[in-house]
Design brief:
Helix content is about 35%, strand content about 20%. It is globular. The protein starts with a strand and ends with a helix. By secondary structure, the chain is α/β, with parallel strands linked by helices. It has a single domain, classed as Rossmann fold (3-Layer(aba) Sandwich), CATH 3.40.50. The longest helix has 20 residues.
Length: about 260
């Protein structure tokens, strides 16, 4: 089931659409609330009519199948729409020298929006389980940077993180430097990337190398294979199709037993 909400935001000074997927109701009354996963770029998650190039992450179909086959427990997934022309500014904590539309970043305000406005709203509206172990956040590209930056600046709120094709080069690898200083990481992190993210072999290598740098930072911080899953997919592109293809494994790693 999909619900939509229009949420006014003081931190972003706008109204932002949320799309919420809830699992099929069980035949018997649930004894406990649902874990929840928040995902950036909500336009690209569920509805082809709203998605970039008409391609989605196929979140509803994938989650429903995994719940039905008991690969993951029932959960709630919240798609947070990006800000359109403000997307690049909202998602980044620092400017991207390669992107002139990413000036005057609003990454700090976006982290506040998610944790102080979106999350309390969802908690009021839906039966979600409390605590970091039941709370995930994720995204792709700039959206992955927004998720990672929020997790690092708001420790102990999120216990699961889904990062696809993160743009770790921004700000001269600012996020990687910041990650090296983090003391407390979430319980589980899924990190995915393709080897053909761009048309440039040099940037493809840079993208993969940066993901492996992040993996090394996380391993050094004590995240073993039960807590960190890194997938480097040969030939995979920077696209909703690639992220949709890796989503089942990501959800199973993050929310499976």
């Amino acid at each position: 089931m999909l619900d939509t909400h229009e949420l006014p935001s003081l931190h972003l000074n706008t109204i932002r659409r949320l799309t919420v997927w809830t699992p099929p109701r069980p035949r018997t009354r649930r004894a406990s609330p649902y874990p929840v996963l928040y995902l950036n770029d909500g336009q690209n998650l569920f509805d082809p009519a709203r998605a970039f190039a008409g391609n989605t992450w196929q979140v509803a179909e994938t989650a429903a199948r995994l719940v039905r086959t008991r690969r993951i427990p029932p959960l709630i997934i919240v798609g947070i729409d990006h800000g359109g022309v403000r997307r690049n500014r909202e998602y980044l904590p620092v400017e991207d020298a390669r992107n002139p539309t990413a000036k005057n970043p609003l990454g700090r305000e976006y982290a506040e929006f998610v944790t102080r406005e979106v999350m309390p709203f969802i908690a009021r509206m839906y039966p979600i389980a409390r605590g970091a172990s039941n709370t995930g956040f994720g995204g792709s590209s700039y959206g992955a940077i927004a998720a990672l930056n929020t997790v690092m600046t708001k420790p102990a709120i999120f216990g699961k993180v889904l990062l696809e094709s993160p743009s770790l080069y921004v700000g001269g690898e600012y996020v990687l430097r910041k990650a090296a200083e983090v003391v407390r990481w979430p319980g589980r992190i899924y990190l995915g990337v393709g080897t053909s993210e761009t048309r440039s072999p040099e940037r493809n290598q840079e993208t993969v190398d940066n993901v492996l740098k992040l993996e090394s930072i996380l391993r050094d911080a004590g995240l073993g294979f039960r807590r960190l899953c890194t997938v480097v997919e040969e030939g995979a592109t920077h696209s909703e199709g690639a992220w949709a293809a890796r989503l089942p494994a990501a959800l199973e790693f993050l929310f499976g037993e």
